[in-house]
Amino acid sequence: MPLAAPTELRFEHRTDGGPVIGLGVPTPRLSWIVAEAPPGYAQDGYEIEVSGSDRIQEVSKGIGDQQLLVAWPFSPLHSREAVEVRVRVHGSGQWSPWSAGAVVEAGLLEPEDWSAVFVSPLEIAAIGGPAPIVSGRLDLSDVDSAVVRARIYLTAHGIYEATINGNRVGRDHLAPGWTAYPHRLRYQTYDVTALVSAGINQVDVLLGNGWFRGRLGWGGNRALYGDRLAALAQLEVTFSDGTVRTLGTDETWTARESVIVADDLYDGQRTDLRGADSPAPAHGVAVVVADLSRLVAAQGPPVRAVATVPALSLVQSPTGATIVDFGQNLVGWVRLRVRGHHDGDEVVIRHAEVLEHGELGVRPLRTAKATDSYLLNGSQEQVLEPAFTFHGFRYAEVTGVASLSREDVEAVVLSSDLSRTGWFSCSDPLLNRLHENVVWGMRGNFVDVPTDCPQRDERLGWTGDIQVFSPSASFLFDSAGFLSSWLADLAAEQGDDGGVPFVVPDVLGSSLAAPAAAAWGDAAAIVPWVLYQRYGDAGILATQFDSMRSWVDHIAELAGPDRTWSGGFQFGDWLDPTAPPQSPFEAKADPDVAATACFARSAEVVGLAAEVLGRADTAEHYRELAHAVRVAFAREFVTAGGRVLSDAATVYAQAIVWGLLPDPDQRRRAGDRLADLVRTSGFRISTGFIGTPLITDALTETGHADVAFRLLLQKGCPSWLYAVTMGATTIWERWDSLLPDGSINPGEMTSFNHYALGAVADWLHRTVAGLAPATPGYRDIVVCPVLGTGLTSASARHRTPYGMAEAGWERRGDELSLRVTVPVGTRASVHLPGRADPIPVSHGTHSWSVTYRDDSALETPADLRTVRDLMDHEVLWGQVVELAQRLGAITGEAQAAGRLRPYLDASLDTIADALAPEHLHLGELGAQVRSGLRALLGRSEPAPHR
């Protein structure tokens, strides 16, 4: 097999899929993939070639196997410079062909590169007024040379949509996006060569409120960043003779009102099309003084319309409203085609995620109106859709359209345009739907920042949510650039004392009085470490290290000399299912225990990061700190027998997964206790934000994978699959956001699109399918699937930085087949059941077939000795619960499990009395319970007492 040419050349973490323009780094790191190579191939050298109109062609030679984020070997790019890069690699005694050329173009790298200034409309564009359009003209009628290149550099105070000569610039929405505006304001670069023509060229920039001036948070606050919308635009046109003409926003531009009479991300958009053909009067603009040094180029992909979803059905509500069901909870807006209307007719579209009693369930939106409306101008046919808002919805109520047809309406899906990199499937359709719900939840909440929810009056970048979800996010989509940008905002808004805001960008400020919160502020340390692990990017550790260290130092100060983080406000194990609807922080897990465990983990991560960066003294300091916290944790919160204070599933999961129980016997006992807690909860979830991402790992690591699978596949409430059985198409905020009777949870905070509790997807990828990184960036892969009762197959695919990796297994009777694909440039260690040593493999596709028997499924009632044994036998346990429920002794599995909590080590002879204690001496019912259960369990009736 010949050695293939490298492909998919990438600069930094940009995934544009074509020329990369507007890059904000003068020395971009370069990565590539080798799709095919002969057996035994290992890269031992490479050459990188650069060429461009502003530089002599150069070739740089490198030695070694590096192909990920290779340092730029040439002189730095200067602003606007475009170069073409090619790569070829060497290994096994041969050179590959050269790759196709990849074009990269620098943006405006210095504030001095901007001749344009921010301008804001005069007399119009007040808060509550119509969206303004600022306009400028560039006259090219006196130029004889042909246009060879045109670029427009754009940003705004607010959000913008630009056109040149009436043609839309780019495909982005909600640009420039949401960053920590006082510190970092993103600008975009667009190739507009095809839009510029000879003669007069008009540039129009439509401005919306967006995050800058719209509502943010649940307190009704708006204009948190300023009360004036403004645009910054610089059009540069280069001609064949080398001359350049520039049009930049300045006081000569004009402003006018648009047909968008109101716009808000929470409330929606109102559009009056009656004046569309009659341009509004022109007004002047004023220059706005702004610090251009805060301008930054994009690190990740823009927000775009990434898909459309057709209407599934039209239904009439009990009140007669027409409701469109799209069959999928999504984020975006409704695109509606209307015809045959009169001038002044009004069309109104309201949005909601669920129906309640057949009507839109809008209570979870709180104060967000989530309504788009249009005043029509009587055109024969019109397509209606907003520009400056988005909604989280599955259902849309449409009024003002006399005969709505399903074919005339569709949903536009809005998201940051992330490349999909991860897939999972298995033999259980409900579990597949759960995973798909995780994907949709991420897609809808990754709208420029990682938000908690996309529909109500919130939509904020909560640090706790992304801290727990970042491993799943990094598998499912290429999130490196997206999250790197968000982390830059986190660092920018971090307090001088190291405290981390609860949300980033921080629009809550002092409205939540607390200096720090465990698991939330830990995002400063954990998210960069996840990006390093998944993408092999040590650069992100270097960039974020001061932020990481400052956070841990802040916790250390709060904890004091005893190294336990006690007291103060904590979110705790947020949304533990036993917490009251109005008090989601009232969890079983003691907040001091959970916080101290987080302290230990973050201190350990900072030490590891320092080691990667070659900072030996710093690494040693944080290793010692982490050790001291672990010692304190064991001293203050753990008994000699492995019990952890508060005896909650979450604290056991933290202690096990994060290595807080150094004594092996303590760890074993803690694992046993955790498994018992799951059993006595009826194999239902008992964890919130902190514990949910950890509990299945903790069970698996301590030899209780069977219990982890029972928990995973549980359908009763609360569980991951309960929502699926209730028709969920995204992950819910609460385990019971929708109650079994179809009504909405009474809590004020109830969302049907939150990704945090979907963090279990990472365990599905790594453990159920068995595809996990062994070293950063998947350079080494470990394939070690854990086969669980209830599944006959599972597989995962992940586009690693080196190429596509895959692991999949299938059971047929006693035969297990395993198939593994390893990308070129990586190695894998494959673990087969029944084999002590892993099998090392190199790139390519490999398969095995081995004998595998699940002996637990062969157990009979005669093999069971204790109540615990019975509960672990899923089929028999289900029969026991069904019988006891039918006889009236219990109301369901959860109650049965709770009653058996004190009897796990007891013999099966005790089960009847334990399940029906109030009926022991009540004659016929008690006798029926005893008799039925003993018959089911194969136990003879004991002789009566004399």
Could you characterize the architecture of this molecule?
With 946 residues, the chain is an alpha+beta fold. Among the domains are: 7-106, Immunoglobulins (Immunoglobulin-like, Sandwich); 114-297, Galactose-binding domain-like (Jelly Rolls); 304-416, Jelly Rolls, CATH 2.60.120.260; 778-856, Sandwich (Maltose phosphorylase, domain 3), CATH 2.60.420; 859-936, no CATH class. The chain is built from 19 helices and 43 strands. The strands form 10 sheets. Strands 19, 20, 23, 24, 25, 26, 29, 30, 31 and 32 form a 10-stranded mixed sheet that branches. Strands 2, 4, 5, 6, 7 and 8 form a 6-stranded mixed sheet that branches. The chain has a 5-stranded antiparallel sheet with strand order 13-12-15-10-18. A hairpin with a 2-residue loop joins strand 6 and strand 7.
Question: How is the secondary structure organized here?
Answer:
Elements lengths: L6 E5 L8 E4 L6 E4 L9 E10 L2 E9 L18 E10 L2 E2 L6 E5 L11 E4 L10 E8 L7 E11 L1 E6 L2 E2 L16 E7 L8 E9 L1 H4 L16 E10 L4 E5 L5 E4 L2 E5 L3 E5 L12 E4 L6 E3 L5 E8 L2 E4 L5 E18 L3 E10 L2 E2 L2 E2 L10 E7 L3 E4 L6 E9 L9 E8 L5 E5 L2 H17 E2 L1 E2 L12 H14 L3 H14 L29 H13 L2 H22 L31 H22 L3 H22 L11 H9 L6 H17 L11 H10 L3 H9 L6 H6 L35 H8 L2 E3 L6 E4 L9 E8 L2 E10 L2 E8 L4 E4 L8 E3 L2 E8 L15 H6 L1 H13 L6 H7 L11 H5 L8 H13 L10
Parallel strand pairs: 2-8, 14-22, 20-29, 37-41
Antiparallel strand pairs: 1-3, 4-5, 4-6, 6-7, 6-8, 9-21, 10-15, 10-18, 11-14, 11-16, 12-13, 12-15, 16-17, 19-20, 23-32, 24-25, 25-30, 25-31, 25-32, 26-29, 26-31, 27-28, 33-38, 34-35, 36-37, 38-39, 39-40, 40-43, 41-42
Helix pairs in contact: 3-5, 3-14, 4-5, 4-6, 5-6, 6-7, 7-8, 7-9, 9-10, 9-11, 11-12, 16-19
